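ok so i was messing around last nite and threw this chain in just to see what happens. nothing serious, just curious
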Amino acid sequence: MASMDVFKSDAFSMMSMLAAIENVDYNPQFLGSLNLFEDAPQRTRVVTIESRDSELALIQTSALGAPLDQRGGDKAKLRNFNTTRIAKASTIRADEIQGIRAFGSESELKQVQTEVARRQAQLRGDMELTFEHHRLGAIQGIVTDADGSTIVNFFTEFGVAQPAEVEFDFGTLSANGGVRRKIADDIVRPIIRAAKGAMTPASQVYALCGDDFFDILTNCAEVRQTYLNHQAAAALREPTAFEQFRYAGVTWVNYRGTDDNSTVAIASDEAKFFPVGAPGIFKVAWAPGESFDVVNTPGVPVLPMVLLDPSGRNAFVTVELYSYPLFVCTRPLTLRRAAVTGS
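result:
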């Protein structure tokens, strides 16, 4: 008989499950695979970001012995942000695991652990999708919730206006040979300038493209002509769906979101631009959990729990996952957006 006492063993303690869940395989999304967001474990639920505007200025020449111009002090600004709570549960009823142990084979504990791990993997998949949704919001400057409501608008929080959307009429631009120039003038240069020195020689600009934007770009005469006289011309004969390539100082990615192309996705005729490899621009704060086990400790990405039937009947257990993140963009003016216009 499958006894619910197995859930009282050390195998289901917070630390044991935390070690186990980190080994659960899942499919990482594109932004997660970039390692774009620097981890910033927190001991509190509130994240404080300090910013300081320090502009360079020319120094006027002066006569020998004359009084020196004084440089003003740089005033630091502190901004507080609340971390979010992401949590989901799955209940395992006693009748669902009845008879799962084959006679003379695996132990009862091993079988129950397998079912718990399966439920955790399902919950972890939902949580990873949510993380990607928050990352996608952060690289656009506005993180939204599952229902579309705004969690945090970094343009508003930092007191700056969101840059206007750049319009790409590829027909007109190609006729005038201006696709590369428009990318440089309206996308790459403004991002580098807005980074205020955060971009290094190793930094890059990425663009996540919707399907139509990517297809029009890759079929643009100016872009294709660039590759025709190059060894990479063979790439023009290959399928381009969900691929990426580099052109005009930008790595263009046909972003693959959820299969419904709406839950986590880029609009078909749009592109979102952001810096990669620029220290300090993107961070993710992990706040601690709600239980005594982790109070006042640095936060971790995921906290698992297994809770017994509180009635004492041992009729079910609930597998839970918690996370307390905040995905942050510290320089929202480095974010640009574009859309296809014209025919």
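not much to say yet. Residues 176 and 222 are 9 Å apart (CA to CA).
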